[in-house]
Input
Amino acid sequence: MTQNLPYLTADVPPLGGRIKVRPDDFRVEEVPLYEASGQGTHSYVCIEKIGMSTLRAVREIARALGEPHRNVGYAGMKDANAITRQILSIEHVPPERIEKLEVPGIRVLWVRRHGNKLRLGHLRGNRFAIRLRGVDAGRLGEVREMLGVLARRGVPNYFGEQRFGARGDTWQIGRAMMKQDWAEAVSLMLGRPCEYDRGEVLRARRLFEEGKYEEAAKAWPYPFPDARRACLTMARTAGSHKRAFFGVDKTVKRLYLSAFQSYLFNQVVAARIQSLDRLMTGDLAYRHANGAVFRVVDAAAEQPRADAFEISPSGPLFGYRMTEPEGEPGEIESRLLAAEGLHPADFRIPGAHKIKGARRPLRFQPRECEVDAGRDDGGDYFELRFFLEPGCYATSVLREICKTDMAHAEERS
Output
C-alpha cells in the first residue's frame, strides 16, 4: 500500500532496479554508541542474522535461553530481508551460555559483559552495503551525481515502507486507535485479506472475516501470538473488539500508534519536498549535533547553518505535548491534523497510551557515500555504500535514486 510520496530528485529519470535478489545483496552493520566494558550483569551479544526481523530474533533467542523476551535489549530495528549484524543485551545470562546458542538463521559473533541494558537509540548509526541489480551500467555517473545532491541537500526523511508493516496498513490501525474505533482496529489487524497475504495468514484472515474466531486463532502461525490471543478473546466475549484489542501486547500497540505518527510526518515532508534544505520563519529548527530544536525568528540569518547541515527544518511526531511551529510551517501541520479530525490533546488515549510527541528533521545526510559498478553471474549491478545515523532509512536513499517503491523492488532467490 504505497503512499505515493514525491521525490526530491524528480528531475532525474527513474533508474529502476531490484534489491535483495540474493541474501548478501543487502548488508547492514550496526555501529555501537559505546563498547561493552567487560563487567556487569548484562551480556552484550553481537549476532548476524539472515531472513529474520529484530523482534523475531529477540523472541527466538529468549525462547532458546528460557528467558522472558523483555530481558533482551536492542538498540535498533533491523530489516528481516537482509544480512544484518547488531548487538543485543541479555540480563542475568552468563556469556558461556549465550556462546553455545544454536538458533536457525542466527550466528553469535561475540559476547561481552556490560553494566546496562541496551535501549532503542543506543547506537551511533549503521553502515550499509547494497547491491542494486537490473540496472543500466551506463548510468553510473547519474547515480554518483544524485548521491552528491542527497549528501548536500539531504535525503527526504520519510519513514520507510517497512515502518508500516508487510501490508502497509499499520498506520491505519494506529489511526483507528486514536479515534477509539476498536472494531476498525481489530478488523485491520485480523481480517480484511488482501493481495499481500499468503498461506496460513490469508486463511486466518478469511476465517476471521467469516466470524470463525476459534478456527482463525488456530490458523495464525507461530510468529503472530497477539493475533491468536485476540481471536480467542473475540470468541470468548461474543465479539468484543475493545477487549480483544486491549489484550494485544503494549509494545505492538505502541508500534501501531508510532506508524500513524510516521504517516502524518511523511505528509509534511511531502508538502515541503522542494524546500527541505530551506528554513522558514516560524520553523522549529533541528540541531543535528544534539537533537535540540529552536524557533527560527530570522530564516535568512540561520540559513548558512542549514547549508552546512548543522540544522534542518523539522516536522511533527504529533503528541499532546509537542511544541508547534508558527507561520507557514505551523499552518501546514495544523491543516493536516484538522483534516484527520484530530487535535493534539487526542494523543492521550484513555486507558491506553499517552503520546507526548517530538520533532524530527525533514531531511538527513548520508555520509561516506560511495558507488561502484560491477558484474557477476547475476548481471550488472551498482554497489552503494554509505553510513546513516539512527532513525534514517537506507530505502529512502535507494528510493530517490531508483524512483520506485523499494518495498516492492525485492526479488529474492
